[in-house]
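Researcher: Let's do a round of design. I'm pasting the structure tokens now; please hold your answer until I've finished.
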């Protein structure tokens, strides 16, 4: 190839292309630079946008918490507005803003709806080069009380241990205040056409259905009531009706009438009058031979008055009612007095019967998908008949006149007959569980009795939650109070499993936690929901 000459046409074209590129390479460099800058700026905007999205999510959560809290309380509008702003501030980090959020709270015309709006500015990172130093982030959240139809049975432990202190007050006093607050919150916050009905089931070992319900009970005129009268407590019925809501009215049928609770004549020693009995409610074994027959004075609650009503809780059930004065008066009447034991099952079963539209309590509406039927059960310790703590000699004692005898079938109860010496166990609505082997488990120790109490109470909870008759099932909220009902105890496990769902179970070791549990339940009952 001769230097300075193109050997052919192809080489000539290559030379031309090279010359052309040489003339335009400066423009390409400029375009490339602009393109790279645009890509970087776009990426930067994406990063800043992502930051704003993350902040909006935080602000939305804070606004939602604020609107829900303000919608579910019964404070004045001014107090609710302050509460909403305070809660928003507690849930947001102000250091992330160049301009702190401006929060406005607007109350609905009815006072039940709350709207929380917040606007703030955050610092940009990449958009600053384009002159945009801040980005505005704003959110809105509205919450309100939905219309509900509800019936609530408060199943409340009034055993002697409820007198123990929890903080600066007794458990029973904190319970009563929390119950008052729940009734006020739910009744005033409900926007439904129907007012909420409330019923109260006080319980210890047993439940008092009220002497005005004698038509559903047999044995109210039993000869063992000589010198006194039936106080209102009832025995359970034989299995499986011991936890059911079935009622036929037949006094002899398992699903028929209940039998009056009667503490049978316990041994008072033997034929030697100098022998002292360790039985809690001694007698000579005859129908009118109780060693002591005390009467409750008017307005005085003493479950341990001697005689056939011994250990019968004296606070009767209050049927469902929309009369809030009566409901509050009933709560005020509750007291905690010395008694022998605590069993949850009777309270749960009678709470279910209270909500049922069928007899013996007919104040409940029919089961329906738009009707919430709710049981709130509270107790503060392990279930027990307390016989294990007495260390007495009743089980080795005989009557001075007639031989001790107890036939469960005479009282429509399951179990084996007893005769001769007194029983080991104390009386329950199911009879003498350990001695009569009421549940057929053959409890050889007090641990076995506790297992029986656990089983029957869980069965009562299961039966109550299944009650719906083609409608909405009964919901159970449960509250364990004090370390005696804490993790690791049988009653803690029972109440946890008794609740309709995990969020319906509460464990409270102080007065603030107990009140908060009732507040949370009230919010759930009111169906407070975000509306946007």
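Researcher: That's everything. Go ahead.
Model: Designed sequence:
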């Amino acid at each position: 190839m001769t230097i300075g000459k193109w050997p052919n046409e192809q080489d000539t074209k290559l030379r031309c292309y090279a010359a052309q590129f040489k003339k335009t390479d400066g423009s390409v460099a400029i375009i490339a630079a602009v393109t790279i800058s645009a890509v970087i700026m776009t990426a930067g905007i994406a990063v800043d946008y992502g930051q704003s999205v993350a902040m909006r999510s935080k602000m939305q959560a804070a606004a939602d918490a604020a609107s829900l809290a303000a919608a579910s309380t019964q404070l004045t509008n001014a107090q609710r507005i302050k509460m909403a702003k305070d809660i928003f501030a507690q849930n947001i980090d102000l250091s992330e803003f160049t301009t702190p959020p401006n929060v406005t709270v607007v109350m609905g015309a009815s006072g039940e709806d709350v709207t929380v709006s917040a606007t703030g500015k955050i610092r940009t990172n990449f958009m600053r080069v384009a002159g945009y130093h801040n980005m505005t982030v704003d959110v809105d959240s509205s919450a309100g009380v939905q219309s509900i139809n509800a019936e609530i049975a408060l199943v409340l432990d009034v055993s002697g241990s409820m007198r123990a202190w929890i903080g600066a007050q007794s458990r029973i006093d904190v319970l009563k205040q929390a119950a008052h607050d729940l009734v006020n919150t739910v009744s005033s916050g409900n926007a439904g056409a129907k007012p909420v009905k409330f019923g109260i089931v006080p319980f210890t070992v047993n439940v008092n259905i009220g002497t005005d319900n004698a038509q559903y009970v047999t044995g109210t005129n039993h000869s063992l009531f000589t010198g006194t009268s039936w106080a209102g407590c009832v025995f359970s019925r034989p299995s499986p009706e011991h936890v059911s809501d079935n009622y036929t009215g037949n006094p002899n049928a398992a699903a028929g009438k209940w039998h009056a609770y009667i503490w049978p004549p316990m041994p008072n020693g033997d034929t030697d009058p100098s022998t002292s009995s360790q039985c809690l409610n001694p007698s000579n074994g005859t129908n009118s031979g109780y060693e002591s027959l005390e009467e409750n004075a008017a307005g005085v609650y003493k479950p341990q008055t001697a005689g056939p009503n011994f250990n019968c809780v004296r606070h009767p059930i209050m049927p469902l009612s929309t009369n809030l004065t009566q409901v509050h008066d009933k709560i005020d009447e509750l007291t905690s007095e010395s008694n022998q034991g605590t069993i949850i099952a009777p309270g749960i079963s009678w709470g279910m019967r209270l909500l049922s539209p069928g007899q013996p309590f007919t104040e409940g509406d029919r089961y329906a998908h738009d009707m919430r039927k709710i049981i709130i059960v509270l107790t503060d310790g392990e279930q027990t008949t307390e016989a294990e703590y007495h260390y007495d000699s009743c089980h080795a004692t005989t009557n001075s006149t007639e031989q001790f005898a107890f036939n469960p079938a005479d009282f429509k109860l399951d179990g084996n007959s007893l005769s001769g010496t007194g029983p080991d166990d104390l009386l329950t609505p199911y009879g003498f569980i350990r001695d009569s082997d009421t549940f057929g488990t053959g409890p050889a120790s007090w641990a076995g009795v506790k297992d029986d109490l656990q089983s029957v109470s869980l069965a009562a909870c299961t039966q109550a939650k299944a009650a719906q008759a083609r409608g909405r099932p009964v919901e159970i909220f449960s509250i364990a109070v004090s370390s005696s009902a804490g993790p690791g105890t049988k009653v803690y496990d029972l109440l946890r499993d008794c609740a309709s769902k995990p969020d319906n179970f509460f464990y409270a070791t102080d007065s603030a936690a107990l009140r908060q549990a009732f507040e949370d339940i009230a919010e759930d009952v009111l169906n407070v929901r975000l509306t946007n």
